[in-house]
Amino acid sequence: MSDLHALAGRLGAHVSWAQTEDRSARTAPARQAFLDRFERQVDPDGVLSVQERGIRAEHARKAYFTRLALLSAKARRRRSA
After folding, report:
1. What pLDDT is recorded for position 60?
2. What is the CA angle 13-68-73, rounded to 5?
3. pLDDT at 81
């Protein structure tokens, strides 16, 4: 992508967000899809109870973010060395 395309895209994004009254509502579908991903990960066949699927999905979500934190810490350590 050229610099010109990147600037045009950035401009469009800023204009769009400037005209968005409820940013939380606009991003709600993406947040829900992100969380649903963990439920599909732990119960791809849909055989678990809603409660058990929720518990496992929460652990999968925490594992995801812990993995990101670990990778970030490793990267910071490499940069400082």
Report:
1. 98
2. 115
3. 87
Domain of residue 51: give its range: 3-80
Q: What DSSP string runs through the chain? A: --HHHHHHHHHHHHHHHHT-S-HHHHHHHHHHHHHHHHHHHH-TT--S-HHHHHHHHHHHHHHHHHHHHHHHHHHHHHHH-
Residues of the chain with pLDDT under 70: none
CA–CA separation, 32 and 64 (whole Å): 16
Q: What dihedral do alpha carbons 27, 28, 29, 32 form, nearest 10°?
A: 130
Count of structural domains, the chain: 1
Report the predicted TM-score, pTM, of the whole model to 2 decimal places: 0.75
